[in-house]
Amino acid sequence: MRAILIGEHGVQSANLIGGEWVRAAGGAGHQVTNPATDAVLAEIPSMGADETRQAIGSARDAWGGWRGRTAADRGALVGLLAGLMRRDADRLARLMTAEQGKPLAEAAGEIEYAASFLDWAGEEGKRLFGDMIPASDASKRILVLRQPVGVAAIITPWNFPSAMITRKLGPALAAGCTAVIKPSELTPLSAIAIGELAVEAGFPPGVVNIVTGDAATIGDAFFDDDRVRKLSFTGSTGVGQKLMAKGAKNLLRLSMELGGHAPFIVFEDADLDKAIAAAVSCKYRNAGQTCICANRFYVQDAIYDRFMSGFAEAVRALKVGEGTGEGVAIGPLINDKAVEKVEKHVADAREKGGRVLVGGERVNIDGLADRFYAPTLIDGMTPEMLLHTEETFGPVAAVRRFTTEDEVVAWANDSEFGLASYFFTRDASRLMRVAEALEYGIVGANDGGPSTAQAPFGGVKHSGFGREGGKYVMDEYTEYKYVSWAL
Ligand code: NAP
Description:
α2 packs across α6. About 40% of the residues lie in helices and about 20% in strands. The protein has about 475 residues and is of the alpha/beta class.
């Protein structure tokens, strides 16, 4: 197996188990490629059930020592990992762009975002306060302790290869859990790079483990092993549903951060410039491959034409190209299947009367893979369109005209998903009314970028359950234990 060579420094082409860099039995491996160029970046191990069990065993063995450390001590190491990510931000961003495709500036933004979750969790671990509850019997005292759940399995998607890991790993470690991470096979290099930095930071062997390979094999090894006490999953709703069923066997504690289908509403009293800028960044970031990106736009009658003309102009200005290119805003889609899905949604919208105002086709770039799709704007969206019901996960915005507030709130809520939603208005009463009425875990009120380490990120309905970020995330990795103490 050869080493990965990206920039000046490579990263390991091995997995981290019990503090050692290991290969799969028999040397089984799979290639990681650049979605923009198809260049092979590395070959990494395809671990099986045995190696996954070893990783779980290492995490379990390390747990006693790790949970026995002070929260300040654990928090300092988690904070140190954040610092090392910032030190290496440029290298890590280049690695991410190479394996995932997003523009370099976005990748650098993700590294900072990822580090911010570590900072936050490292501090939050120091505030895992218990309680002393007045008892009904004068001879008793009731103490409530908060304790780490144990070994946490972490499964992450390819669209945010670093942040989806640290959003789970930071609070798990800060709470006193140990972890086994399974990143997406499409973007494992960012995960392995985090593992290298964890070793450098000085985490004891076995506290952080990383396994790559066939998802179902590794996933089943997690579900079959009762030493795993927590599984935090970020990915699609369909896979999340399957994993929930498997979790029943060991009554595994689960967090499910699943798909979204965000409505984006622009009321006639909105600040239009602000709404257009937010629509562009919210929709086209990561070429539309984000769980909280707007999928359905609703714009009120009186400002419809003005909004559409400004939005179209801004979309036309977005430059498509390899993520490392100067001024590039839209990189490649992750794989051929993703491009085909976008094509299917656009063809379906056309058939059902949608008018393509901008884009609507692949962009061919000399010397690059055929995986670039033009930023697209479609007028005349209807509820029958696939765009209106399924996550498109591509750079396509579709817009529908509305008349009343009640009507648009009902449309916005008419979805099985409930992750993020957005609306723009200058009316303070409406702002509170609509924020309360939207059946979503996250509401961007005049804000197209609500994600931050301080807030509880997560969804309702088919977008899952559990929260990441803020003080709330610590609940995901801790148990409440009460001690009834008779004097
Ligand atoms: P995915 O296909 O569900 O995969 C997510 C992760 O699960 C990957 O690591 C995948 O491994 C693994 N996996 C797949 N089948 C598995 C199985 N049977 N057992 C165990 N693990 C399994 O999702 P994706 O395409 O990577 O990511 C896009 C989806 O994630 C979108 O729906 C998006 O909305 C959602 N997402 C949600 C959030 C959120 O916070 N709510 C954030 C980001 C993304 P392999 O890739 O190696 O097959």
